[in-house]
Amino acid sequence: MTFFAVKPIDGTPYGVEIPEHSKGDVDSFIKKASASVSTIAAQSPQERALLLRTIAAEIEAVRTSLVESACAETALPEARIGGEITRTTVQFELFARLVETGKHLGVAIDKADPNYSPAPRPDIRKMNVPLGVVAIFAASNFPLAFSVAGGDAASAIAAGNAVVAKAHPSHPNTCATIELAIKSALKKCGLSEDLFSIVQGVNPEITHWLALNDDIKAIGFTGSEVVGRILVNLAASRKEPIPVFAEMGSLNPVFVTSTAIADRSEALAKGLIDSALMGSGQFCTNPGLLIVKEAPELDAFIQKVSDLISAAVPTTMLTPGIHQAYESGVKKLEGNSNVKLLSQAKEASGPNQCCARLFQTTAQAFLNDHALRDEVFGSSSLVIRCKTDDEVLGLSKSLEGQLTATVLMEPSDNAAFVKKLLSILERKVGRILFNGYPTGVEVCHAMVHGGPFPATSDSRTTSVGTEAIWRFLRPVCYQDVPADLLPQALKDSSAVPKLVNGK
Q1: CA–CA separation, 321 and 224 (whole Å)
Q2: Distance, CA of 230 to chain centre
Q3: Residue from 151, 29, 174, 62 nearest 98 by CA
Q4: Residue 181 · residue 55 · CB < 8 Å
């Protein structure tokens, strides 16, 4: 079987005819990766850093081709794709700087101590090692930064794993170009090209083939809660269960205080709508909930937000499927008797276009109707009107896990209320923003792009930033191992950072 990419802007085929991989192909990719994984696992920190930088250089070398294919396959503008390419290479460089320090190895040494109490202590040394072969599932909404060379793949490779990545069928040509770039980097660094492969296809069984293969030791996924749950369940059903690090749905609530509305309603309205409209709302951090308290200025503020939505120009969504799901989601809201449609963007002038919507409901209705918590992937936001501060806090307590929560406030706001809200949000989300907007995730050491279920399948992790590397490592303890048999990082002469006898 073969398939073509489809240009969302007009529904026509794009690029070369893509052969769909069979189960035999998938098994072969994984077997070859497993046979070669010890070579990348054995690299020194400096060798690993060189590999990561070489991957970044090889991706940069095909920038022109990537821009052409990604723009055609996603309808995203050239500036956005160019930025994604840069973000992708920056991720690899960031991990290169991390691994060359050796900090990711987490070396700890407790030397033998015959006088240790309550009993003599043997020589005990610990370091982190890679898991093996990792399956990565590319996201639809970021054809580069969250795709086959996105943060999941970068962190897995940085940890010393092999990767078999499921290419997203909406941008297969872009994924194929990335595969060639990474294979070229592996070859230049003296490693087997089998350490990185992509799987092409639209067959849903591919998910099962990857998740259930005995040689797959972990899964990284960005996408819907439905598919994320499938992967979690498949991984748990195996004879050897494996971890699944799935980033799934999020409503990303934005709390706006009455003081902020009174002081800067124009700026807040524009900032919120710019965030909601960015990329047709096809961000996992899109502000889906706007939580406000009744106040004299509230109606005027909501009207400003509504007017900006009404003036918005429809934009092409990533795929026909995403557009169909968006329309289904907003129609459900339009048909809900507890929800009021406040405004919508201008009428679509072409296929697969997102017409932004703004809805409104009450806190009580939101608490009573679980359907209002369903994510609408696209430029759709729901205003929730609360009567009191206590109602705001009660609503925040009812929220499921989220990737982000935002607080728009003024220094003059009630500090006690804000502290209470913050303490609730700390238990609900992975990233809390004050006086900013959730769309846009910085690639850095301190970033957390994660959160409690259903935002992710494991709230202890992040899929963005250097902390993502810990997902694909595990600790191994070496007790009384002869010095000449110890891994280099655990030898007394090693220069990697280490904790020795607790110091």
Answers
A1: 13
A2: 17
A3: 151
A4: yes
Helices (H) and strands (E) in the chain, counts: 14, 20
Residue 440, pLDDT above cutoff 90 = no
User: Where in 76-161 does DSSP place strands (E)?
Assistant: 107-110, 124-130, 133-137
pTM for this structure? 0.96
Cα separations (Å) of 82 from 22, 57, 147, 184, 225? 33, 15, 15, 21, 29
d(CA 207, CA 20): 13
Question: What is each CA distance from 46 to 150, 158, 488, in whole angstroms?
Answer: 22, 11, 13
Mean pLDDT of the chain: 97
Residue 12 has pLDDT above 90, yes or no: yes
- Using CA atoms, how far apart are residues 328 and 325, in angstroms rounded to an integer? 5
CA 2/CA 469 separation, integer angstroms: 35
Dihedral of alpha carbons 273, 277, 281, 284, sign: negative
21-104+131-248+458-477 is classed in which CATH architecture? 3-Layer(aba) Sandwich (3.40)
Among the listed residues 58, 73, 179, 247, the single catalytic one is 247
Q: Quote the distance between the C-alpha of residue 75 and its chain's center.
A: 21
Correct CATH for 253-434 of 3.40.50.2000, 3.40.309.10, 3.30.1250.10, 2.40.50.140 = 3.40.309.10
Question: Annotated catalytic, 175?
Answer: no
Catalytic residue among 284, 354, 355, 386: 284
Q: Which amino acid is at 96?
A: A
Helix-helix angle 45-61:151-158, to 10 degrees: 150
Known active-site residue 193? no
Q: Which helix (H) or strand (E) holds 360?
A: strand 357-362
What's the whole-number mean pLDDT along residues 282-305? 97
Q: How far is 167 from 147, CA to CA, in rounded Å?
A: 7
Domain ranges of the chain: 21-104+131-248+458-477, 253-434
